[in-house]
Amino acid sequence: MKPTNILIADDHKMFREGLVELLSKEKKMNVVGDVGDADGIREILKQHQVDVILMDIDMGDTSGIDMSIEVKKDFPEIMILALSMHGDKNYIVKMLEAGATGYILKNAGKEEMINAIHTAANGNAYFSNQVSAKLLEHITNPTAEKKKKVVGTPLTDREIEVLKLIADEYSNPEIAEKLFISVRTVDTHRRNLLDKLMVKNTAGLVRYAIQKGLLDD
C-alpha cells in the first residue's frame, strides 16, 4: 500500500515542524509539504499529489474554512482534516459544511492524530471526543425548528436514530447492541442512508445532517 501523502497547513511554524517530525516516523505517511498560508497550499497542490490536508482554521489572513471550500472545488478527492484549538460548535459546523471529513483538536495525542489521518485517508469521518460530543448533543436535542426540519427529511425515525449514532462514531456492532437490533439490520440501515442521501461515506452523512438542519445552527 502506497503511503498517504499529507499536506500540513498551519501558520504556526513550530507546530508544523513538530507534526512533520511526528509523521515522518510513520512508514505509511509521507509529508509532501508544510505551509502557513493560502498561496503555500496552492503551490503544493500544483506540485504534488495530496491525499490528506491537515487544515488549521486560523492562518493569519487565510481562513481554513475558505481554503477548504476552494480545495474541495478543485480537488474533490482530497480529504481535509480540520486541525484547530477551537472546539466551538460554530467552527465545527462551518468546517464540515466547507467539506472537511473530520475535525481534531490540537491537544490530541500522537496515537489519535495518526488514527485520525488514517481514517480520513480512507474517506471516513473522524472527530475528537469533545467534537463528537458537541455534534451528538445538537443532533439528539433538536430545537422545535430542527424537529420540523427532521420531519421533512426522507428518513424514517429508525434511520435518524442510526444516523445519530453513526455521527457519534459508534461501530455497527455497537449500534446494534444499543438499538437491540441485528448487525445485519444496521448494515441495511447504513446502506439505505447512503442511498437515500446520495452520499458516499460517513463524512457525507454527517455533512448532510448539518446542511439539512439536523444540527443546530
What would you say this structure looks like, in words?
The chain folds into 2 domains: 4-127, Response regulator (Rossmann fold, 3-Layer(aba) Sandwich); 135-211, Arc Repressor Mutant, subunit A, CATH 1.10.10. It has 11 helices and 8 strands. The radius of gyration is 18 Å and the shape is globular. By secondary structure, the chain is of the alpha/beta class. The longest helix is centred in the last third of the chain and has 15 residues, at 183-197. The protein has helices at 13-23, 38-47, 64-74, 89-97, 110-121, 129-140, 144-151, 157-167, 172-179, 183-197, 202-211; strands at 4-9, 29-35, 52-56, 58-59, 62-63, 79-84, 102-105, 126-127. It is 54% helix and 16% strand. A 6-stranded parallel β-sheet has the order 2-1-3-6-7-8, sandwiched between helices. A two-stranded antiparallel sheet has the order 4-5. Helix 4 links the parallel strand 6 (79-84) and strand 7. The model is unreliable at 144-151 (pLDDT under 50).
Give the gist of this structure.
The protein has 217 residues and is an alpha/beta fold. The protein contains eleven helices and eight strands.
The helix/strand class is alpha/beta
CATH architecture of the largest domain: 3-Layer(aba) Sandwich
Helix proportion range: 40-55%
Our estimate of the beta-strand percent is 15-25%
Order of helices and strands: EHEHEEEHEHEHEHHHHHH
Over the alpha carbons, how many angstroms does the gyration radius reach?
18 Å
Spans with pLDDT under 50 lasting ≥5 residues?
Answer: 144-151
Which strand order does the major sheet show? 2-1-3-6-7-8
**Overall geometric form:** globular
Major sheet details? 6 strands, parallel
| Secondary structure tally: strands | 8
Q: How many distinct helices?
A: 11
CATH superfamily membership of the largest domain, which one? Response regulator
Query: What distance separates the N and C termini?
Result: 40 Å
Mean pLDDT: 83
* CATH class category name of the largest domain: Alpha Beta
CATH topology of the largest domain: Rossmann fold
- What's the domain count? 2
